[in-house]
Design a protein that fits this description.
2 copies of one chain form a homodimer. Chain A contains 12 helices and no strands. Chain A is mainly alpha-helical. Chain A has 2 domains: about 60 residues, Arc Repressor Mutant, subunit A (Orthogonal Bundle), CATH 1.10.10; about 200 residues, Tetracycline Repressor, domain 2 (Orthogonal Bundle), CATH 1.10.357. In chain A, α5 runs antiparallel to α8. Chain A is globular and about 60 Å long. At the A-B interface, α1, α6, α7, α8 and α9 of A face α1, α6, α7, α8 and α9 of B. Chain A binds a DNA duplex through α1, α2 and α3.
Chain lengths: ~260, ~260
DNA sequence: TCAGAATTTGACGTATTGTCATTTTTCGAC
DNA sequence: GTCGAAAAATGACAATACGTCAAATTCTGA
């Protein structure tokens, strides 16, 4: 039998973990309701119905709490990436699936994405706990690894021959940068729709296809119907997420009317 | 003769404009010294040797002051872009020059770039004055226009045939996103050097070249020595800026030792 | 039931933003 | 040069938020 000491200890641990989740849940909800400026530790304490001191036992400072949110979001993102990378498709299709998952995540969790951006700024980052930073790095390494593997698969299957001098990692970095940059610019307030870019996701899709064709990553789009891949992703793989997106949009519309 | 009333009025205006510059200068310096967190309006007031109330006559709130900094940086960036776009080179070379200028700017003014990112977050942006927002939009439109024009030149000169469905604006947006995203990821603290990307600028150069070759933008790199273009940019066009960068690095090294 | 440990609490010290009544300076007319 | 009004500068003050810590409360094992 498990000794009673250990039993209570583990119960305590579970309670603490549960409350940490509760705090993060409330913080996430508040972030949506009152925005980044309006989010205060007092408000969080009130929302979770614990005192501020208790919150501070879980998180060293406000930045650390935000970093906790960021960490959870990153984990969610990684899970989406993993699903995309693990699909039974050609490497090039899987890369497209990952890009799709990324843009989907950003549309599903715009606040978290904005939060992640703020959190990554140097001044905030250096105030977060070493624990959080470490966990974050682990996820980042996993993401980088998952992404790079898809390109490696493309190379080893013979679908892709990397141009002289360009490594897998560099290619992935630049692809990542494109997706990330596009999303960042998308929420930056610059009215790109007025400047001839009606749909960022659409522009990215076309760009990616042309880029991969340009690298001669087989099957190239003349030989394969990548629009069908998009449909497959939308209607089968990420159908649930897209539905949530629609529901959210409807709820918001109903609220505002 | 100019009537005395107008004389004093314009002098006042000049004084006010000069002090606004002074405030921005001090704020920029403080931002470098004490960081974003440590920057307070009291400190700025102390640095410019005026009272806080006077600062608030120039800027509605702290965010507005930061937006002022952001605006100045954007103007500097636009000036660099204009220089690059106005060079007597082929369209493809000019595009490379612009990308070079962008990465150069970010290395020259990392704090301003980080600041610009923070400022673009929705919560901060909506607190800035309408005046600042409008000025910002003007610059953004100018940048977009300058960039798009280079692609249009490529098309009209026959060097580039856009693939079916992809517009100039969408292509520029994606290129911009790549540069912006790469810079953002670069300052995000993710140790890409450990993940096989030793030099972000280097990765971008190779990526851009391959991308433009893939789009069959003439002259393609087999027909033209783009490394020579890079050298030309480094040694002739942006030599002064690169020197400043080196000087900065030396100063920093001397400080820390 | 109880003593001691662990946990929770919220009032408090410090810092920061933004305001506004008061003081100081400037300006033009006489 | 002097005066009164207008413009500008000042800094004390209210409001708010972060993070701390001594006191209060709860829990635990005997």
């Amino acid at each position: 039998m498990i000794p009673p000491l250990m039993n209570t200890a583990s119960r305590k641990q579970r309670e603490i973990a549960a409350r940490e989740e509760l705090i993060l849940d409330c913080a996430a909800r508040l972030l949506g309701e009152v925005g980044y400026q309006g989010l205060s530790m007092d408000r969080v304490a009130e929302a979770v119905e614990y005192s501020k001191g208790t919150i501070y036992q879980h998180f060293d400072c406000k930045e650390d709490l935000l970093a906790g949110l960021c960490l959870r979001s990153s984990q969610d993102l990684y899970d989406l990436f993993s699903r995309a990378a693990g699909l039974d498709l050609s490497p090039r299709e899987r890369l497209i699936a990952i890009a799709f998952a990324y843009q989907l995540f950003i549309r599903l969790h715009p606040l978290e994405f904005a939060n992640m951006q703020t959190l990554k700024s140097a001044t905030v980052r250096e105030k977060t706990s070493a624990e959080n930073r470490c966990a974050m790095q682990t996820i980042e390494a996993q993401v980088m690894n998952t992404l790079t593997q898809v390109v490696r698969d493309g190379v080893s299957s013979g679908d892709l021959t990397l141009p002289q001098g360009l490594t897998c990692e560099e290619l992935i970095f630049c692809l990542w940068a494109t997706q990330y940059g596009a999303a960042s610019l998308g929420i930056s307030g610059i009215p790109f729709a007025d400047y001839g870019v009606p749909s960022i996701a659409g522009a990215l899709q076309k760009f990616n296809n042309n880029l991969l064709d340009g690298l001669n990553w087989h099957p190239v789009s003349k030989e394969f119907d990548y629009a069908a891949t998009q449909r497959y992703l939308e209607q089968q793989v990420f159908n649930a997420e897209l539905r949530m997106l629609q529901d959210d949009a409807e709820t918001r519309q109903r609220k505002s009317s």
